[in-house]
Design a protein that fits this description.
Mean pLDDT: 75
Radius of gyration: 36 Å
Order of helices and strands: HHHHHHHHHHHHEEHHHHH
CATH architecture of the largest domain: Orthogonal Bundle
Structural class: mainly alpha
CATH topology of the largest domain: Rna Polymerase Sigma Factor, Chain: A
Distance between the termini: 81 Å
């Protein structure tokens, strides 16, 4: 049984005996047995662990825009890397034989083909570190892609399995990063373009020995500088408004951010003062005149109303409302009231 959960993913560390069906298939090939001992396998295992622990991410794939801490491997992952490092690689003949029998339903052959290519998953997974998922999660997702590749692989088409499986492993990891690696999900097609941009950025920084501009990155991959900047913003991790500020942790980030969509205290005070003074002026009118003016000019609910709408409210004709409005406006133009209104407009 190969990975189906995080626990299953480590199951092979206890060791598996090769099934009789797979053993028969491999011994029929003119090549070394898959599980025969090899003096070089211990070196391979140590090499894999050292390579991953050293953080050799592969500059062509690693993100230059995401700061990562030095890699710390859990003991379970160390055991996994040492375990798969002891499994010899398959020869082309062994690979084809196992793949053909796997397509015919041989479970042992399917498992043997998967286990022999687990190092390929690690090799690909380490290139995606620093993008939101742990090394263990990357390997887990890559293993699921490997299983899918074994199920779909047709050896009679002439391709090496590793070439075919690489696409499935990368797709599984990329999709998982897109779905789970970030607070805000990035679509897979966008993530592919982001990866291309990050790869170009890394190459240019390595070649020029300095930070590169959006225009330089865009020129190298035939992408506009504006698009490069859009992608850079898309991969930036959002900050929580509850994030503590300072060493005391008594203040949150949200307390220092201005709400530009709302009114400032001074604007709210000015609006309240203006409303109060307008109401004082309207209070000098008769009750019906004050209500008609308030409805017609939206002083009550912020929504101006037509003569027809106001007439329905008072159950009178439109003409009567027009007359009341004209009479009220004439009163408001009186110098004693007009002076106050002009001050508010100014």
């Amino acid at each position: 049984m190969v990975v189906g959960s995080r626990q299953d993913f480590l199951e092979l560390t206890s060791g598996h005996a090769l099934g009789d069906s797979a053993r028969t298939v491999l011994t029929s090939c003119p090549a070394q047995h898959l599980y025969s001992s090899s003096k070089g396998n211990g070196k391979v295992a140590r090499s894999i662990v050292r390579e991953v622990e050293a953080g050799e991410l592969g500059l062509d794939e690693a993100s230059p825009l995401v700061e990562t801490d030095s890699l710390h491997l859990e003991d379970s992952v160390r055991m996994w890397l040492r375990r798969i490092g002891q499994i010899p690689l398959l020869t082309p003949d062994q690979e084809v034989a196992l793949a053909r029998h796997s397509r015919l339903g041989c479970v042992d052959c399917k498992r043997a083909l998967i286990e022999a290519n687990l190092r390929l998953v690690v090799s690909i997974a380490k290139r995606f570190m620093g993008r939101g998922l742990s090394m263990q999660d990357l390997i887990q997702e890559g293993n699921m892609g490997l299983i899918r590749a074994v199920e779909k692989f047709d050896p009679d088409r002439g391709f090496r399995f590793s070439t075919y499986a690489t696409w499935w492993v990368r797709q599984a990891i990329s999709r998982s990063i897109s779905d789970h690696g970030r607070t805000i999900r990035i679509p897979v097609h966008t993530l592919e373009a982001v990866n291309r941009m990050m790869k170009a950025t890394s190459h240019l920084q390595q070649r020029l020995g300095r930070e590169v501009t959006s225009a330089e990155v865009g020129h190298s991959i035939n992408m506009s500088p504006e698009k490069v900047e859009d992608f850079q913003r898309a991969i930036a991790e959002p900050l929580s408004l509850d994030s503590p500020v300072g060493d005391s942790e008594d203040s949150a980030l949200g307390e220092f951010i201005v709400d530009r969509t709302g009114e400032s205290p001074s604007e709210a005070a000015a609006r309240a003062l203006m409303r109060s003074r307008i109401e004082d002026v309207l209070d000098t009118l008769a009750d019906r005149e004050r209500e008609v003016i308030a409805l017609r000019y939206g002083l009550t609910d912020g929504q101006p109303h037509t003569l027809e709408e106001v007439a329905r409210c008072f159950q009178v004709t439109r003409e009567r409302i027009r007359q009341i409005e004209q009479k009220a406006l004439k009163k408001l133009k009186h110098p004693s009231r007009a002076t106050v209104l002009r001050e508010l407009i100014a």
